Amino acid sequence: xxxxxxxxxxxxxxxxxxxxxxxxxxxxxxxxxxxxxxxxxxxxxxxxxxxxxxxxxxxxxxxxxxxxxxxxxxxxxxxxxxxxxxxxxxxxxxxxxxxxxxxxxxxxxxxxxxxxxxxxxxxxxxxxxxxxxxxxxxxxxxxxxxxxxxxxxxxxxxxxxxxxxxxxxxxxxxxxxxxxxxxxxxxxxxxxxxxxxxxxxxxxxxxxxxxxxxxxxxxxxxxxxxxxxxxxxxxxxxxxxxxxxxxxxxxxxxxxxxxxxxxxxxxx
Length: 268
What we know:
The protein is of the alpha+beta class. It has helices at residues 27-39, 72-82, 119-129, 175-187, 193-200, 233-267, and strands at 2-10, 47-48, 57-67, 87-94, 105-113, 131-134, 147-150, 152-158, 161-168, 215-221, 228-229. Strands 1, 2, 3, 4, 5, 8, 9, 10 and 11 form a 9-stranded mixed beta sheet that branches. A two-stranded antiparallel sheet has the order 6-7.
């Protein structure tokens, strides 16, 4: 019996979050279904590194479970062949002492519409959140200590989008979505840098909560583990189907906009 760690990817729109919930399709329920089909084990000791809320995506969440299959490359191929919505990206064997929640760092990305955002102010706002702070005003409080360290927030634009990349060992509930909303509001002149500073110093304030589908868990990293990449052939075919689905959706909205513009031109 081996204990296996894997990196998994999924689009959050297909699941009611990562945690098991009775009667709902979640990432946990899908992974358990996949493992059951491949290994015939209904209770493999499955654990997740990071919880993701409904709608939140992941490209590199980490899971750990027990497997009677020795060849982990074959195991990842089999899981990718049966899964509906989970992509098993990489794998490694771990010991019984390994705690999947004790990661070296977690990297998240939040996407904003860059149109109308003052990049200089947005970048300055990012710097305010770096380092050690009490993030009580930037989380959904659930009783956990609210003082922690954000190592880095990088900020870049591409194709009309503003991407915020966060690096830290761990985060609080809704923390990134609330911080990203604050950066968005400051960049659009709807809040000031002083407002953010005051909130970090404990003043009661709310900057809203960003939409969940704009948030992606990019990677959970362990400096002491060496993951092997899964066979890309088990992922590429399914990926092409999803890309085609998105192209069809985009084409629909582009045609809708074209028809709208034609109507406007006819009225003029």
